[in-house]
Specification:
about 240 residues, alpha+beta, AOC barrel-like, 3 helices, about 40% strand, apoplast
């Protein structure tokens, strides 16, 4: 009987320590003691081939100022890049990065990034994280800001550590480590409906309109910043078709 009790106690201790001994795989949410959520995934920015996920829509007027990227000052690219669990593009799909980046430096390979990280799997399907910031591609690790979010990440704030994993020509695989906190449960109703990424309709009700408008206002600053950036890029530039 004593041996059975000792075995049961050892098994209980092992189960308690299991989450510590086995770290969560890439892409799985982990909450720190201070309430910070950590997400990790890989972005695949493909500009080559017959089905690119990054397409240049504005061509700057000058000569190439960032040879490593094949870009000139003012060049602007719209992206719908895959987010996956590992650096392999065939690993589990976790979402998409949708937005744009432009070469914003006249003297180096520095991009201004404005994008939504759309999550498409698990409980966070349909939630987004708004990212805005400076991407100095010559640096090993870059830090961009989390300036908002929707769904499970309403009123999110934090930062993204952006690290190039590999390059093949102009195609890039970038590791993203996102650290954020949210305002859910304080000023926004966390139970408000979230639209799934597959476009299917969510819950309906008389209160949904006011909740949706409240969520839109929280991201207004980010939307205005992106709109200003697009206007600045378009003025004096020509569209490439």
């Amino acid at each position: 009987m004593a041996a059975v009790k000792a075995t049961s106690a050892a098994a209980a201790v092992f189960l308690l320590l299991l989450p510590v001994l086995v770290p969560p795989p890439a892409g799985v949410l982990a909450a720190d003691d201070d309430g910070t959520t950590h997400l990790s995934f890989f972005m695949h920015d493909i500009v080559s081939g017959s089905n690119p996920t990054a397409v240049q829509v504005i061509k700057g007027p000058g000569s190439t100022t960032a040879p490593a990227l094949g870009m000139s000052f003012g060049d602007t690219t719209v992206v719908d890049d895959a987010l996956t669990e590992t650096s392999s593009p065939t690993s589990a799909a976790l979402g998409r990065m949708q937005g744009f980046y432009m070469l914003s430096s006249q003297s180096g390979p520095v991009l201004m990034v404005c994008a939504n990280l759309l999550l498409t799997s698990g409980d966070h399907n349909g939630s987004t994280i708004a990212v805005l910031g400076r991407d100095d591609t010559a640096a090993d690790v870059r830090e961009l800001a989390v300036v908002g979010g929707t769904g499970k990440f309403r009123m999110a704030s934090g930062y993204v550590l952006w690290k190039t994993s590999s390059m093949k020509g102009a195609d890039a695989t970038v590791q993203l480590d996102v650290y954020l906190t949210t305002g859910n449960g304080t000023t926004i109703d966390a139970a408000a409906p979230v639209s799934p990424a597959d476009g299917s309709s969510g819950s309906s009700g008389s209160g949904s309109g006011s909740k949706a408008s409240s969520g839109a206002r929280t991201g207004g600053g980010w939307v205005r910043a992106c709109a200003v950036a697009v206007v600045v890029a378009v003025v004096g530039s020509s569209w490439v078709w």
